[in-house]
Amino acid sequence: MKSLNDIRLAQLAGSLYLLLIPMGIFGIIYIPEFVQVAGDAAKTFANLTDHETAIRLSILCAFAIQVIQLFLVVALYYLLRPYGAVAALFMLLFTLVSVPIAMLNELSNLAALLIVRSDGLSDLFSSEQIQTVALFLIQLHEQGIMIAHIFWGLWLIPMGYLVYRSSFLPKNIGVLLVISGFGYCVDTLTFFAFATDEYLIAQYTFLGEVLLPIALLWQAFKARRLR
Description:
Blueprint: H1 4-35, H2 41-50, H3 52-80, H4 85-117, H5 127-154, H6 156-165, H7 171-194, H8 207-226
């Protein structure tokens, strides 16, 4: 990574990737898991009612994550393409597939909030029925996340390959990214095969995603000092 353009791409990619981490924790993990109380429609409905602002912020975070992801993958595509054009193309394509899935999936959360705010439904349905539908929509959102989940894993596998082949990033980060990618894919398979989230492993295999942006920013910093 000697050209000024590569340095800028590494800085951009590293910064965007780091930005995704707290936004993903808040918008995709913490708030959705906090809102849904498994098997308890009344408590889930109460969470929707009491924490509407936080839920709307999580939806905005989910939208922002997808927009950032687009800029991130383009930066990584141009930065890593010299180490494998086909792999870089697959990395790009997997991301382009995941973005609309993840964004459209937020309609479930928005629909749940509409139910909470709709006064007319109480004239047609009982409170128990309304609460059950709200819980269903929240659960539907979880299912949609797991569909996007597999593409969040698939894009990491060619990325890990490219990082491994690159001349300026540690090869072990490339290996960790591939492991992380398989972790996401396995999660999707086990979630739908066994209808449970008890066997999810991506929460233990994500280290490469944390180390990559740090390595990108560090390499860009070193390259700038040498210019």
